[in-house]
Design brief:
This protein has about 150 residues and is an alpha/beta fold. The chain has a single domain, classed as 3-Layer(aba) Sandwich (Rossmann fold). The protein contains five helices and six strands; from the N terminus they run βααβααβββαβ. Strands 1-6-5-2 form a four-stranded parallel sheet, sandwiched between helices. A two-stranded antiparallel ribbon has the order 3-4. About 40% of the residues are buried.
Length: about 150
């Protein structure tokens, strides 16, 4: 499975991701979705966002991958499936104290035809691997930034 990203996680890109993660900035969402639409594999038949851990979604009032997925669905016409569920809480995956946390234990909730996984950032790839394992039939993944 190929993972593609709009930008490398450097220069102004981390600030843009921060605005997506903590403010749900619609201008940034529109900017990244225009490019993400061009990166989708031709075999894609649906979009599946990686859900944000529930406590952080409540705290910040935004689920960045879900927002990106909605906008990407509107732009491409591909249906959005909420096929994964996140736990109530999980240690942060970003910042200094992330080592050893592992990906959140995502649960499969429903099937999606030839899905592309949607997320905001890929750092180690572990969360995308966990999502792909749960889905079983992912044809690719798109993210805003990549540290790989």
């Amino acid at each position: 499975m190929v993972v593609t990203s709009v930008w490398l996680h450097q220069g102004p890109a981390p600030l843009m991701v921060h605005r997506l993660k903590y403010r749900g900035d619609p201008l940034i969402t529109g900017l990244v979705v225009a490019r993400m639409a061009q990166l989708l594999p031709p075999t894609a038949r649906s979009l599946v966002p990686i859900p944000r851990v529930t406590m952080r979604r409540w705290r910040y009032g935004v689920d960045p991958a879900a927002e990106i997925g909605l906008a990407l669905s509107a732009r491409t016409g591909l249906p959005l499936f909420k096929a994964l569920a996140a736990p109530l809480w999980w240690p942060h995956r970003a910042g200094r104290n992330r080592a050893g946390n592992g990906p959140p234990p995502l649960r499969w909730t429903r099937s999606a035809p030839a899905p592309v996984i949607v997320d905001d950032v890929v750092t180690t790839g572990e969360t995308i691997k966990a999502a792909a394992h749960q889905l079983g039939n992912a044809v690719g993944a798109v993210t805003v930034t990549s540290s790989l």
